[in-house]
Amino acid sequence: MSIDLNHYLHLSALLFALGFLGVLLRKNTLVVYMCLELMLIASTVALVAFSHFNGTLDGNVFVFFILTIAAAEVAVGLAIIVALFRKRHTVQLEELNHLKH
Amino acid sequence: MADLLFYIFAFVTLACAALVVVSKNPVNAAMCLLLSLVGVAGLFVLLDAALLAFVLLLVYAGAVVALFLFIIMLLDTRPGSLKPFKLTTLIASGLGFALLVVGVLSLYHRAQFPATAIPSAAPSLKAYAEQLFTTYLLPVQVVGFMLLIAMLGVIVLSKKLHTPEDVS
Hints:
- The structure holds 2 protein chains of 2 kinds.
- Chain A is mostly helical.
- Chain A has helices spanning about 5-25, 30-55, 60-90.
- Chain B is mostly helical.
- Chain B has helices spanning about 1-20, 25-45, 50-75, 85-110, 125-135, 135-160.
- In chain B, helix 1 (about 1-20) runs antiparallel to helix 2 (about 25-45).
- Chain B starts with a helix and ends in a 10-residue tail after the last helix.
- Chains A and B meet through helix 1, helix 2 and helix 3 of A and helix 1, helix 2, helix 3, helix 4 and helix 5 of B.
């Protein structure tokens, strides 16, 4: 039995769900951020698989844009985390609750 | 052979992604993220997208994970600061995970996919360039401008601003 589109789509769904689980479960901002990256990567796997099995190039080109956006997002997000750490001296999400009160 | 490679890469990707979620130390999580990305790059090679695999390793392993490690060491988070998860959090996130998996899989099973793959040669570098500079010329320029804006934003964010009074 050879590998078809469904295998890749299932893998991508599982990877996305694992990233989602990490975002919900973890309290460390940096690890939450890594799990967000996992979700982005899962979407790229699905795009490349669709592109390959449909014989087009558009999905692959789209992955270029996703990678660019991800790089910019990581840079800005980590700068925000560093700025937050300067103010609050913590990266734990449960201690960053000043908007709640 | 390709089937076996698919299963190996899929296992590496998923196992390391799970380790990112559960690892106590953020440095270990970053390393597992790196391994997971290597697995994804292998899958890209299996899908005839070797250029994308190369770019993925270059951008993610070279820049993003290195940036993560740099920030982790800069922030000096206390090791062993992982408290045991609260039961409510565990149940809620487990439920969210299960719902997402069931939802996406049911979406896949209702969709109509082509039964057999359309055979196509591995896309060449020239094909990518042609697409990027004809069909997707405007998005390329917008993305370039967005990178510039992100760079400016990072510079502004990481500058020491002298405010009259700090919030804390």
